[in-house]
Amino acid sequence: YREGEGVEKDEKKHLHHLEQAAIGGHPNARHNLAIFEWKSGRAERTVKHFIIAANMGNDESLESLKKCYGMGLVSKEKFAAALRGHQAAVDAMKSPHRDKAKAALRI
């Protein structure tokens, strides 16, 4: 719905499906919601979405959160907690099979 590929472009439906994906645990959708909130001028909601996505292991959200911290939009404590949450999520996803697949894709 965002691009109107195969369907009529519809921002409202796009946002609805993005929210549903985020609620369902999709970290990239959560990150994209943060970007939407930022563009809408809602910094507090932006930070909340970035924190949730970072806690799910989303690298982009962690980097964006770092920028928000630099701008004074997030406290040191919340940033540190998100950093720990991100690392825990990354560690939880580590496995020999993932490492092998990642190595195979670098060919």
Cα gyration radius (Å): 16 Å
Share in β-strands? under 5%
What structural category do the secondary elements indicate?
A: mainly alpha
Output the number of helix runs.
6
So what's the overall shape? flat
InterPro entries: TPR-like_helical_dom_sf
Which helices and strands appear, and what pairs or packs with what?
Elements: H1 11-23, H2 27-39, H3 43-55, H4 59-70, H5 76-93, H6 96-105
Give structural notes.
InterPro entries: TPR-like_helical_dom_sf. By secondary structure, the protein is an all-alpha fold. 27% of the residues are buried. α2 runs antiparallel to α3 and α3 (43-55) packs parallel to α5 (76-93). The protein has helices spanning 11-23, 27-39, 43-55, 59-70, 76-93, 96-105. Helix content is 74%, strand content 0%. The protein is built from six helices and no strands. The chain has one domain.
